[in-house]
Design a protein that fits this description.
heterodimer, A: 815 residues, alpha/beta, 29 helices, B: 115 residues, mainly beta, four-stranded antiparallel β-sheet, globular
Chain lengths: 815, 115
């Protein structure tokens, strides 16, 4: 009498299990196979190619009725098991009771539908089985229909690409900051998004779905930010949920999935489980490779091998979208003691990253060129020590075993028709000709051939051509990168952002070939400023790339407390404001109150969690942030002018307040301080400010680029004008020119030292069109940034909470 | 004193900390900074730079390091050690993520007297 083996679930895991079992013990069991779908086993991971029309259903069938018959398996397809009776050792289905000696649960998983209103509407489907594929194909049949895919993971993107290939208008809504965040880092996620967008697929990250709209059928998807995306079809690809109901009802231990040990045994020794429905060592698997490993182990167990044990394998991912090369395996995060090797080729859209621990590869992310994936994966699985080939390992097997690559030799070997400058279509031959014609440095090459004159990313390559052509007559310039993450200088980066219209930080890091995955404390604040200065309307300011003071809208002190300074426009205040400041100082136990050199009052020693409250109190009295902490406009110092002073020639306080109201809130490369003096006696000390205005009987003298800090420098005259309106216009234009051109952390005097006053005057004074355009661009930026940051933090309790500790364990400890 | 398997306490959701950011947890022994990296790892260090006691939780988080806001020391999140030429180390603490929640070792609760 053979033992009775019952298997619930006719998917890929049980299919492979049966194959392996027949190999090891062909005659040991009487087998009954239940499957909820009314068909045999097909290769579920090939559903995407079927959807895309690259394969047919018949091509992906792995086990048909004939196969089961020839192996003597009793199949019960389309008949769901409703209950397991462990006491009597049988499973119960519509067809009656089926006894078992051993039972295997392989019920797989179901699509997880995020719990939003409208998810039950017709037209909202998952992407798990052939029925889903047929529903999608039906929807794609009429021309011009729209599909919204919720979820930018592996499955969602495959569905998106396939439906796009079928001619639908496709939008992907992804909750996280970048696509496939479980397999890819932000840089590779960016390249993937770019590739999908090039195919006409719209991608929105950080998209929180609020509801699915529609009456009889789905009409649209509504996001938390209020935007609406029309849809004839919504595909939920928001993850999978292990199908565990039978196990739960049977009283087996179930965590996220059905709990199994290394033998794939559940808490009942007669019952095993495998596939996507199980949880092994706190992990649930959704990819096919580990499921096949499980099948192999369980087959050997069922065949009597008591040593077979499942070891979680390294799992690699590829996206099955024709024309997109992407590979990921192992740890993609840099973690304890991990290092990384990053290679980027912006021109070809290639990104490679190896995560290294103790000299071994433990993670690989490849985008754009996956030819070496097998070689890296083999090294990862073997745990091979790569230290000896570390310098060249990222270049793959072609280089790793050879001598270190010499970049100059590579450039020397390029043929004359090799393109060096993509922007201007300049070949190596053109550059060599220019060199032979007498151009001996980068500037001369730029002037004669236009190579590297646009985005500048090929400047290094041009210099290598110079070095290779001129030999010892040309010394490669010292690298002048702004930090160890890059060889590019500030100007190169600003030029790149403008020329390539780069609008996000991951995009910039990729296009500029950043050598780290997410920058450092030196480059990130600079990149954040450059992006927001260039694209005020499109770029979202990144608080995490700001120094603490700008992130917390207050100056951090040596003991971790903060100083709070409300704005006093032009140094003017009122008894009511002073009273509110005094009240706040007492209410929040402020230890020190100081009058500053910028004509305002500083409250020193405020605790972080009190910041939103003290701001709210000051806001209530009509005051706003003084930005005493920002790389932006600080103060406009004034004297009392004609209102009271017997020497005053103009309304210096009024003009100061007007300038402050124009400029406040704007971000600049470094801090900016202004002053307006009402007469040449200069009580407001305007001649050592970034911008200083001195009033005279006949008008206003505007000086710029003064300094009174580490360096002491008198302002240089910019222009003399007759009216307040002109002062406002010239000062605004100067500030905008500074914002658009200076290196991050250069005060105006440092920047002017580099570009020269003539260059500044040419753009601000001599060219009226240029001046007006600068003012217009400044106003566009200020439409976003002329806001009180305090008021934005003091609103909802939710926003306030981030200022308090994440948790307070001192209370619980006391109990 | 428990020596068997660690008990874990759920203190917050991962999303309560911004990526490349940090928040503070108060304990009887002082504040602990909990960091979240760009790739959603969490680390926990005493919230005191080994240099001059600066609040590491307010630093810029990059890769698996944080730069102290006071004097730019760069501290490794995994080991607590200063990187580069600086020498010093800050204590690290057990922490993990499970299903989007941040769990810390119950030892964070214990009111250990300073040795």
């Amino acid at each position: 009498m053979k033992e009775k083996l019952v298997i619930i679930g006719a998917g890929m895991a049980s299919g492979r299990l049966l194959e392996d079992l027949f190999e090891h013990a062909p005659d040991r069991y009487d087998i009954t196979l239940f499957g909820a779908e009314p068909r045999g086993n097909y290769n579920r991971i090939m559903l995407s190619p079927v959807l895309a029309g690259e394969k047919s259903y018949e091509e992906i069938v792995t086990h048909d009725a004939a196969w089961y018959r020839s192996h003597g398996i009793a199949t019960r397809f389309g008949e769901p098991v409703v209950r397991i009776d462990r006491e009597r050792g049988c499973v119960i289905s519509p067809g009656g009771e089926t006894p078992y000696d051993r039972l295997v649960i392989a019920t797989g998983s179901a699509s997880f539908f995020i719990p939003v209103p409208g998810r039950d509407l017709p037209g909202v489907i998952g992407f798990r089985d052939m029925d889903d594929v047929e529903a999608m194909l039906e929807a794609a049949r009429a021309p011009g229909r729209r599909a919204v895919i919720i979820g930018g993971g592996l499955l969602g993107l495959e569905a998106a690409a396939a439906l796009r290939a079928r001619g639908m208008e496709v939008t992907v809504l992804h909750l996280m900051g970048h696509l496939m965040e479980r397999q890819l880092d932000p840089a590779a996620g960016y390249l993937l998004q770019r590739a999908l967008e090039a195919r006409g697929i719209e991608v929105f990250c950080n998209a929180h779905t609020k509801a699915i709209l529609g009456h009889e059928r789905v009409d649209a998807v509504l996001l938390e930010d209020g935007s609406v995306h029309e849809a004839d079809l919504v595909v939920m690809a928001t993850g999978i949920r292990p199908e565990t109901r039978l196990a739960v009802d049977a009283g087996l231990r179930v965590e996220r999935g059905i709990w199994v040990d290394d033998a794939l045994q559940t808490t009942d020794p007669a019952i095993y489980a495998l596939g996507e429905c199980v949880e092994h060592r706190q992990t649930v698997y959704g990819l096919v490779a580990p499921l096949y490993d499980m099948a192999r182990v369980l087959a050997r167990r069922l065949a009597g091998d008591a040593d077979a044990a499942f070891e979680p394998p390294a799992v690699s991912t590829r996206l099955k979208v024709t024309g997109i090369d992407l590979f990921s395996v192992g740890e993609i995060a840099t973690d304890k003691g991990h290092e990384e090797i990053v290679f980027r080729d912006p021109g070809r859209g290639i990104y490679k990253r190896l995560v290294i621990e103790a000299g071994r590869i433990i993670g690989v992310v490849l985008y754009g060129d996956t030819t070496d994936s097998g070689w890296f994966f083999a090294k990862l699985k073997a745990g091979e020590d790569i230290d000896p080939i570390r310098d060249t390992v990222i270049f793959g097997p072609a280089y790793a075993e050879g001598a270190a690559a010499d970049p100059l030799a590579a450039v020397a070997a390029l043929p004359p028709e090799a393109e060096i400058c993509g922007c201007n279509g300049v070949c190596k031959g053109d550059i060599v000709a220019a060199i032979e014609g007498g151009a001996t440095d980068l500037a001369a090459i730029r002037a004669t051939t236009k190579a590297s004159a646009s985005c500048g990313s090929c400047a290094g390559l041009v210099e290598q051509v110079l070095a290779a052509t001129l030999g010892d007559d040309f010394a490669l310039p010292e690298k002048k990168g702004i930090c160890p993450c890059t060889d590019l200088g500030h100007e190169d980066i600003r030029r790149l952002i403008k020329a390539r219209e780069i609008k996000t930080m991951p995009a910039l890091m990729q296009e500029a070939g950043w050598k780290s995955s997410c920058g450092c404390h030196v480059c990130r604040p600079a990149l954040n400023f450059y992006l927001l200065a260039e694209w005020p309307l499109e770029y979202a300011d990144d608080a995490q790339s700001r120094f603490v003071n700008e992130r917390n809208h207050a100056n951090i002190q040596k003991d971790g407390t903060y100083s709070v300074m409300p704005r006093m426009w032009g140094g003017m205040t009122t008894p009511a404001e002073l009273r509110a400041i005094a009240d706040a100082a007492e209410k929040y136990d402020v230890p020190a109150v100081k009058v500053t050199g910028g004509q305002r009052i500083d409250l020193l020693g405020v605790k972080k969690e009190d910041l939103p409250s003290i701001w709210a109190d000051l806001n209530a009295a009509g005051m706003v942030s003084g930005h005493a902490y920002s790389k932006g406009l600080r103060t406009v110092k004034t004297c009392v002018g004609t209102d009271f002073c017997r020497f005053g020639t103009q309304d210096s306080t009024g003009l100061g307040i007007r300038l402050e109201k124009i400029l406040w809130g704007s971000w600049t490369p470094h801090k900016v301080k202004l002053a307006v003096s009402g007469c040449p006696r200069n009580c407001a000390e305007a001649t050592c400010k970034d911008v200083g205005v001195i009033c005279t009987e006949t008008g206003y003298e505007i000086g710029v680029a003064g300094a009174a800090g580490m360096d002491l420098k008198k302002t240089e005259p910019l222009v003399r004008v007759a009216t307040e309106d002109e002062v406002a216009e010239y000062v605004t234009a100067f500030i905008q020119l500074y914002r658009e051109n200076a290196a991050y952390l250069d005060r105006p005097y440092k920047w002017v030292e580099k570009v020269g006053m003539d260059w500044v005057r040419a753009r601000v004074v001599e060219d009226a069109d240029s001046r007006k355009a600068l003012c217009e661009r400044f106003e566009i930026s200020q439409s976003v940034y002329r806001k009180d940051p305090w008021a934005q933090e003091t609103g909802a309790a939710q926003r306030r909470r981030k200022w308090a500790p994440l948790a307070d364990l001192t209370l619980e400890a006391a109990e | 004193m428990k020596t068997e398997t660690t008990d874990w306490i759920d203190i917050a959701a991962l999303d309560d900390i911004p990526p490349r950011g940090a928040r503070v947890v108060r304990t009887a022994e002082g504040c602990i900074a909990v960091f979240r990296t760009h790739d959603d790892r969490v680390f926990a260090l005493d919230d005191r730079c080994p240099h001059k006691g600066g609040p590491l939780s307010e630093g810029i988080v990059h890769g698996t390091a944080v730069t102290c806001p006071l004097h730019n020391w760069v501290i490794d999140l995994a080991t607590g050690e200063a990187r580069g030429a600086d020498e010093g180390r800050v204590r690290s603490h057990e922490i993990r993520i499970r299903e989007g929640r941040i769990l810390v070792s119950s030892q964070w609760l214990a009111k250990r007297k300073a040795a």
